[in-house]
């Protein structure tokens, strides 16, 4: 019996248009809609009026305006956002993403490509292949799109010259050879006049291939998700009352039936599918693309972000893997910096441990690099603070994709596609210790903590930390003091003061501090640690509740006046580069556990405040 909740009347093709600025992407979509008589009379009238006001094609209708809905796009004549259009013919329904061509908006193009089955890559016949053409082709390949239409547009502006068309096709085929496309169909066209859009054009009698719409209706794009292994990333725990507990999400791969065995990928706990709900109706099975709620036969621990799978075909679970990155932030990638990784419905701190290479978008060469800038593409090793369940992106585009989020600005920093897990990570297991951290702390009659002193050079961090340690030592508290200058004489002597080295400096210190707290110690650290993201990494590295951020707040002018080591004088004279407060910023804490005004309060009082904080938190015994 047919499922009444499904609409399988027409197969759907998800496609996007991409290419460089002003290659005619929006015009092409507008022309398609117009020739398929999918524009209402009132829309056509409005389009004619807008063409006179904003158009760029003289007295003719400017079909790009049908898609370029933003006023800024119309005024500039470019696409900024991703515009989606839906239409259908007698053979097929289509979801079209019109994506920006300008390099500044490459991130928007990647967003539109993430769910597409086919890409129409437009090239201006007058200009040939451009850097942005190469970049878009690479991104299309990385995002798993295997079918490409090379639309060589504006062929009318080169007199329908076959030689120009052949040269561009040859150049693209040579460039795209390593990209792994299953099909590349080249079509000469004029989106403005409709040549080879909805019918073959008499202006190109030498073109032996299909026209665009014919190819789009006929191309066979396999929905491989339905034949893939079953995956359900849990987006929500549905608990309307005590007698119902369901796990809601969109099936990311494969099929599931009522009565099938199921497992939580991360924990390995198993159960049986007791019921499947879709659109508030009970169904017997579900497949990729269905939004469902599953109920299970057993009460097992499942949280938002977990992935449900079949016991005999589970996703990988690891905290280290390699991935391609499309960098989307104005701020460059900093290996070692802590970002937030959102993969499915799970968000966890993560960092790029090593950038393996950057991809040259002109020739696909792999170049050595230490960072990625806006719109650059690279290949990197990543590590997360907790294991995550995933599939290689080539196997499942849903469970193999992630984004990195800047922890300070909350902006998307990168889109990532997982290649494979790092096998070396699976060969290392934590060694069980006979004496654990609780035993270490108990014999010392204290609870471990990390006192993270941060502030400008000359703020008074080391002075206060030394005094606090002396007071704690006098009370029999077991401590260790990690001072920035001392650490750089040994453990971190190989690091300089570039942004990248500062990130690595703090990462190493945070790991050492964690080892010290495992020994039951109160750890005092005195580091400028100018970036919030690195202090967040240190907090994440520490055990829950053990990190106490102490902001030694001293105005810059007072720190410069003190200048105990003469560093400000040398930095202001240009002798020291990357000096915090002079030519490198200091990001003050926004929610420190303690803020000490070291510009106007004596250090004895400030040190007593720190000791009192440890008492209040139960880390040391009260006198």
Describe the structure.
- A hairpin with a 4-residue loop joins strand 2 and strand 3.
- The protein is 26% helix and 28% strand.
- The protein has 4 domains: 207 residues, P-loop containing nucleotide triphosphate hydrolases (Rossmann fold), CATH 3.40.50; 85 residues, Elongation Factor Tu (Ef-tu), domain 3, CATH 2.40.30; 111 residues, Translation factors (Elongation Factor Tu (Ef-tu), domain 3, Beta Barrel), CATH 2.40.30; 180 residues, Rossmann fold (3-Layer(aba) Sandwich).
- The N terminus is likely disordered.
- It is of the alpha/beta class.
- The N and C termini lie far apart (78 Å).
Classify the beta-strand content into a percent band.
25-35%
What's the main sheet like? 8 strands, antiparallel
User: What general outline do the C-alpha atoms trace?
Assistant: globular
- Rounded radius of gyration (Å): 30 Å
């Amino acid at each position: 019996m047919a499922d009444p909740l499904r609409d399988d009347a027409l197969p759907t093709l998800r496609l996007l248009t991409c290419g460089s600025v002003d290659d005619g992407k929006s015009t092409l979509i507008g022309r398609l809609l117009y020739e398929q008589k999918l524009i209402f009379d009132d829309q056509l009238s409005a389009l004619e009026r807008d063409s006179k006001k904003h158009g760029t094609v003289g007295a003719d209708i400017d079909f790009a305006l049908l898609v370029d809905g933003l006023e800024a796009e119309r005024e500039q004549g470019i696409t900024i956002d991703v515009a989606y259009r839906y239409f259908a013919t007698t053979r097929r329904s289509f979801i079209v993403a019109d994506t920006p061509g300008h390099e500044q908006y490459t991130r928007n193009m990647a967003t539109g490509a993430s769910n597409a089955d086919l890409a129409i890559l437009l090239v201006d016949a007058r200009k040939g292949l451009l850097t942005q053409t190469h970049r878009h082709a690479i991104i299309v390949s990385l995002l798993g799109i295997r079918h490409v239409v090379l639309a060589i547009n504006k062929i009318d502006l080169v007199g329908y010259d076959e030689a120009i068309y052949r040269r561009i096709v040859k150049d693209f085929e040579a460039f795209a050879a390593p990209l792994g496309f299953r099909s590349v169909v080249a079509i000469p066209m004029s989106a403005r006049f409709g040549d080879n859009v909805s019918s073959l054009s008499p202006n190109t009698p030498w073109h032996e291939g299909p026209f665009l719409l014919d190819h789009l209706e006929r191309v066979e794009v396999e929905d491989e998700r339905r034949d893939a292994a079953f995956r359900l990333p849990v987006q929500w725990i549905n608990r309307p009352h005590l007698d119902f507990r369901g796990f809601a999400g969109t099936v990311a791969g494969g099929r599931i039936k009522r009565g099938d065995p199921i497992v939580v990928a991360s924990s390995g706990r198993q159960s049986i599918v007791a019921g499947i709900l879709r659109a508030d109706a009970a169904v017997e099975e579900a497949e990729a693309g269905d939004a469902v709620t599953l109920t299970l036969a057993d009460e097992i621990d499942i949280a938002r972000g977990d992935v449900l799978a079949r016991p005999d075909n589970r996703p990988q679970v690891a905290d280290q893997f390699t991935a391609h990155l499309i960098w989307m932030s104005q701020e460059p990638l900093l290996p070692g910096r802590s970002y937030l990784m959102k993969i499915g419905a799970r968000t966890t701190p993560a960092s790029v441990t090593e950038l393996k290479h950057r991809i040259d978008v002109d020739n696909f060469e792999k170049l050595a690099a230490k960072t990625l800038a806006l719109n650059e593409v690279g290949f990197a090793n990543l590590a997360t603070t907790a294991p995550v369940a995933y599939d290689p992106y080539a196997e499942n585009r849903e469970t193999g994709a992630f984004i990195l989020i800047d922890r300070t600005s909350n902006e998307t920093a990168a889109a990532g596609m997982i290649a494979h897990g790092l096998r070396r990570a699976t060969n290392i297991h934590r060694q069980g210790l006979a004496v654990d951290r609780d035993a270490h702390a108990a014999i010392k009659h204290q609870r471990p903590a990390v006192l993270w002193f941060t502030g400008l050079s000359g703020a008074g961090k080391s002075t206060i930390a030394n005094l606090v340690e002396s007071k704690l030592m006098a009370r029999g508290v077991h401590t260790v003091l990690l001072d920035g200058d001392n650490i750089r004489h040994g453990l971190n002597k190989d690091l300089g003061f570039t942004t990248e080295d500062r990130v690595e400096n703090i990462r190493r210190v945070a790991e050492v501090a964690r080892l010290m707290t495992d020994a039951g110690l109160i750890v005092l650290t005195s580091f400028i640690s100018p970036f919030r993201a690195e202090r967040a990494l240190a907090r994440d590295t520490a055990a829950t509740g053990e990190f106490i951020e102490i902001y030694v707040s001293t105005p810059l002018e007072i720190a410069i006046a003190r200048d105990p080591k003469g560093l400000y004088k040398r930095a202001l004279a240009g002798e020291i580069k990357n000096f915090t407060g002079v030519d490198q910023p200091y990001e003050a804490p926004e929610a420190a556990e303690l803020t000490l005004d070291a510009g106007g309060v004596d250090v004895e009082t400030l040190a007593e405040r720190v000791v009192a904080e440890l008492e209040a938190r139960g880390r040391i015994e009260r006198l």
